[in-house]
Design a protein that fits this description.
peptidoglycan synthesis, antibiotic resistance
Length: 274
């Protein structure tokens, strides 16, 4: 890939990973229309390391405080246990369906665009619902609630659904406010994305060339810089304005992609490696 494509994809990953708009969906559609081919679709997964580091960077103080409190604070231990419990459903299904996800779902741009539109409608509906809020702090989510949010995260195995979108919508429907739903989604992203990174690297390391590794490094650095900006400002934004903007964005992008593919007669995800 030319360097400008690597940087573009890194920016898209970093700017969209923690927004409920589907970073993977945006990456795959961008690659489809630019005819970008990546071996094993590993670039899209591995540059998520930058987003993981962004969370660790922005929340380093809170994460350190939680870690130090675990030996003597039941609340800290419950929070860590809840995040790990929420991670388990996606870990199980992701490992089981990895090949199907990468070779079929990742290669179906019409499905991805459709999921963007459908997810946008769902986000708009949920954002306007008058929900009964029982939890205002992600640290206080009980393990049972966390596990249910983790089950909701599994819908994001379908590219275009959005990992953060699925977890945020699930959390809100289960009684959390918008801010705590988004914050829990941040923390759940760490084991989920780290697990996806490690598993994909294990599965595809043999087919990655030196050039691929270089592109991945540049991509994750770009993603890190962009993701830091999003993580720092997203919680304050959703607390004031909700998720309507992201719902409309999904509908516009997904609809535009569907129209473009139909007009071009090009709905296949296959590409030719040059």
């Amino acid at each position: 890939m030319p360097i400008w494509e690597v940087i573009l994809l890194g920016l898209i990953e970093g700017l969209t990973e923690f927004l409920p708009v589907s970073s993977t969906g945006h990456l795959l559609l961008t690659e489809h229309f630019l005819d970008i081919c990546n071996p094993g679709k590993s670039f899209e997964v591995l540059i998520q390391l930058g987003a993981i580091l962004a969370i660790l960077s922005v929340y380093s103080v809170k994460l350190t405080r939680v870690a130090l409190a675990m030996p003597h604070d039941a609340r800290a231990r419950r929070f860590v246990a809840s995040v790990l419990l929420a991670f388990l459903p996606a870990a199980f299904i992701g490992a089981l369906a990895h090949d199907f996800i990468k070779t079929v779902l990742f290669e179906t741009p019409m499905l991805i665009a459709s999921m963007l539109v459908i997810g946008g409608v769902v986000l708009l509906v949920v954002d306007r619902m008058k929900l009964n809020v029982r939890y205002n702090d992600a640290m206080d989510f009980p393990p049972s609630l966390a596990f249910k949010i983790g089950v909701m995260q599994c819908f994001a195995m379908i590219p275009g659904v959005s990992r953060s979108g699925a977890t945020i919508v699930g959390a809100m429907l289960l009684g959390t406010d918008k801010r705590s739903a988004a914050e829990f989604s941040f923390f759940l992203a760490m084991p989920t994305m780290a697990g996806a990174f490690a598993f994909d690297l294990y599965k595809n390391s043999a087919i990655l060339s030196t050039a691929d590794v270089t592109n991945i490094v540049i991509g994750f650095i770009t993603a890190f810089i962009a993701a830091v900006f999003v993580v720092k400002h997203l919680l304050d934004y959703v607390s004031r304005h909700g998720f309507a903007l992201f719902g409309w964005w999904r509908i516009i992008v997904g609809s535009a992609a569907i129209i473009a593919m139909l007009a071009m007669g090009d709905t296949s995800g296959s590409c030719v490696v040059h």
